[in-house]
Write a structure and sequence with these properties.
The complex is a heterodimer. By secondary structure, chain A is mostly helical. Helices cover 72% and strands 0% of the residues of chain A. In chain B, the strands form two sheets. In chain B, strands 3-4-5-6-7-8-9-10 form an eight-stranded parallel sheet. Classes of the chains: A mainly alpha, B alpha/beta. Chain A binds chain B through residues 1, 3, 6-8, 10-11, 13-16, 18-19, 22-23, 26, 76, 79-82, and chain B through 55-57, 59-63, 65-66, 90-93, 120, 177-180, 230, 278.
């Protein structure tokens, strides 16, 4: 038997479902009612993104990523999984990246088109992260403190950010800012699969929609650039 | 009409009340028979055939609620005559959680502490063992194993030195999921080890071909890990099947835990199986499986045929 073929997904999740859901609950208990403040921050970032103010939206999102990196990964998840500390650093890196984009305007000076797949996909994903995630666990019979909330728990933070990135960033900035959210949504989905959570398919649906939005936005950008190159300049000559 | 009691009747009633308060709970919680124990080859020491694994289940971090819940699992384990607890530095906070439970229980005398050394945890084998002993709150481990044959030459040499110096009592090697059996066999054949830990359950019986006979031949004690195949096996059976009546008749297998664990520990080469659980009721089921009667060789064959027919 090949050694690698003997490994299963379960071998990489070093805790059982009661431990994981208790971790979510502990985060909820420890920081309530901060949820409301951070949720308001997320809603503000959402509306700013819709209005083309990506720079301020990135500025608002950055500390949220830093907080989740420290409070969730370094302080709690890292106790359960050695990979947790690496994810903590990844969340801090995301916070630094969003801050940098906010300061340098890199990738943020794009007015979102309020139509097309990327826009609607982004709005749906961000709304799911902000409003849908907190009600999943209670609807499935778990306690309200186990409800995953943007800015407190990593999955809705990653989902909401992915949605806002799809709406308001383009080019290299879009891909850079989407990388860590995509990574964590994948890890989160795989974790839920191993733990037999009834909503384990939700992160993969979000992932598929997010990737579709990102790829579509990239294709639109390339198509727009090609059109701009072919459009005649003021002297009637095609742009070179 | 008012009933009147004589002094003798009153004394009898008080006596009966006191006796029932003392005796009935003890009878209700007492196990139906003594836990079966098997000797560690080459020694007079015996181990209860059902141990306690901690992979995934004991990695609860610093959560007080879950720490107390796991301490109750450990309490139930020792209350039913449990001995061997197995952990690893790979299991996250599990060694700390065992330490918490043992401290609450006042370090039970029947504890047989089994740990492992594992490269990614950092430090030398000696340093790891010292740190793990501190986390468990024990002076010395009974058994330290080389986890998944990780850097086994160097680690096994270090563990043997520690054994010679009286810092640990037994040394061993581990594998799981049927990995690296050829190399495992070669080490069992050529090295002086006391314990070999491997995956052995009713659906994963590769060890029967070479490793278990070799363990008997060389006088190596065997710990069977993944007795429920990571939980999938018992979950699947509980969900769709009743324990067959002949298993109840032949070896008192009333639950699937009985069926699966008795199959493992009735193999003559196996000393101990280490099911892991988060729940006291499951722990109680597991511990019950360590009591007589055990299946005969022909019943064991029938058990395999039954599982393969599903």
């Amino acid at each position: 038997m090949s050694e690698w073929s003997s490994y299963r997904l379960q071998d990489f999740i070093p805790f059982t479902s009661d431990i994981y859901f208790r971790l979510l609950e502990r985060m909820g208990e420890a920081y309530w009612p901060l949820h409301l403040l951070i949720l308001a921050l997320g809603a503000s970032a959402f509306f700013l993104s819709l209005r083309g103010r990506a720079r301020i939206a990135c500025f608002l999102l950055a500390p949220v990523w830093g907080f989740v990196g420290v409070a969730y990964f370094f302080a709690r998840y890292g106790e359960l999984n050695w990979a947790g500390n690496y994810m903590g650093w990844a969340f801090l890196a995301q916070a630094a990246t969003l801050t940098l984009f906010s300061i340098t305007h890199f990738g943020t000076e794009v007015s979102p088109q309020r139509r097309g797949l990327p826009f609607f996909a982004g709005v749906l994903i961000a709304a799911t992260g902000l409003l849908g995630y907190p009600v999943i666990a209670p609807l499935m019979g778990y306690s309200w403190f186990q409800a995953e909330t943007f800015g407190i728990h990593p999955a809705p933070t990653a989902v909401t950010t992915l949605g806002l990135v799809v709406i308001s960033l383009r080019g290299a900035a879009m891909w850079i800012a989407a990388a860590i959210p995509l990574l964590w949504i994948t890890v989160s989905g795989l974790t839920l699969v191993v733990l037999d959570a009834p909503w384990a398919s939700a992160p993969f649906a979000i992932l598929a929609l997010g990737l579709a939005g990102l790829v579509w936005a990239e294709m639109e950008r390339r198509s727009d650039r090609a059109k701009a190159r072919q459009a005649p300049d003021k002297r009637g000559l095609p742009n070179s | 009409m008012t009933q009147r009691f004589t002094r003798r009747q009153t004394l009898k009633l008080i006596g009966a009340g006191i006796a029932s308060a003392w005796l009935l709970p003890a009878r209700a919680t007492a196990a139906p028979g003594a836990a079966l124990e098997k000797a560690i080859p080459g020694t007079d020491e015996t181990l209860p055939v059902i141990g306690l694994g901690t992979w995934r289940t004991f990695n609860v971090g610093s959560d007080p609620q879950l720490l107390n819940a796991r301490a109750e699992v450990v309490r139930a384990f020792f209350a039913q005559g449990g001995g061997l607890i197995d952990s690893s530095p790979m299991y996250g906070s599990a060694p700390d959680v065992i330490g918490y439970a043992l401290k609450r229980l006042g370090n039970p005398a029947t504890l047989f502490s089994a740990e492992k050394v594992w490269g990614p945890a950092g430090g030398s084998a000696r340093e790891q063992v010292a740190e793990l002993a501190q986390r468990w709150g024990v002076k010395h481990f009974d058994l330290v194993q080389v986890h998944n044959l990780d850097n086994w030459r160097e680690n096994l040499a270090a563990l043997r030195e520690m054994k010679a110096a009286g810092q640990i009592r037994y040394v061993g090697i581990t594998t799981s999921h049927g990995r690296r059996h050829a190399e495992f066999e070669q080490i069992m054949a050529s090295e002086d080890i006391d314990f070999a830990q491997m995956t052995y359950n009713i659906t994963h019986r590769e060890a029967e071909k070479r490793l278990l006979p070799l363990a008997q031949e060389k006088g190596v004690a065997v710990i069977a890990n993944r007795p429920y195949d990571g939980g999938n096996l018992i979950k699947g059976l509980k969900g769709r099947e009743q324990v067959p009546e002949w298993a109840v008749q032949e070896c008192d297998c009333r639950t699937w835990a009985d069926f699966l664990l008795k199959f493992i520990v009735s193999h003559p080469a196996v000393n101990c199986a280490i099911p892991a659980t988060t729940r006291v009721d499951h722990l109680n089921e597991n511990m019950r499986a360590g009591r007589d009667p055990m299946p005969s060789a022909s019943t064991r064959r029938r058990m395999v045929e039954f599982i393969e027919s599903l």
